[in-house]
Specification:
By secondary structure, the chain is an alpha/beta fold. 34% of the residues lie in helices and 19% in strands. The chain is globular, with a radius of gyration of 16 Å. The termini are close together.
Length: 195
Amino acid sequence: MPTTHLLYLHGFRSSPQSTKARTMAALVAARFPGVTWWCPQLPPSPREAMALVLQGIRHWPRATMAVMGSSLGGFYATAVAEQTGCKAVLLNPAVHPARDLARYIGEQTSWHDPQERFFFRPEYVDELRALHAGPLTHPERYLAILAQGDEVLDWREMHARYAATQITLLAGSNHALSDFDAQLDRVLAFLELAA
């Protein structure tokens, strides 16, 4: 069944202004105007972020919705996909964010607006631990796009976590997937967005 609703979840310190989020938003608007698109600004608290997302999609049709997530958003997207059974596209997804983000406790700046600051609290690490989805129940519903050139996350950890899914492994590239445009055909074929 074609995808009628698409959720996009950005990464840590990122926003709906990320290049990948804006690329997907423009693509959906231009080519798939009937698809419901939502890319919320996620709060720093993982618990609050997940509550916001689940509240926002509570009336979405589970059989025809999909989620995309980049980096920390990929971790959240996995949690959403496991709760709803929907398709998921993961772009360099964070695998162990509780471990990796523990060193970022304190004041942070937003990537797209350095004037915007937020505080990453110690309890957020525990909230991340609580959100870990465990083994994937439907790996065939996942597409993971992983860059071996990711300078932030270890592609081998991502590959191991999502080994049973459909994986596109890029030699080189980077954490931001600055060559994301080259992956759009693969993403669209997987998502099967409603015309």
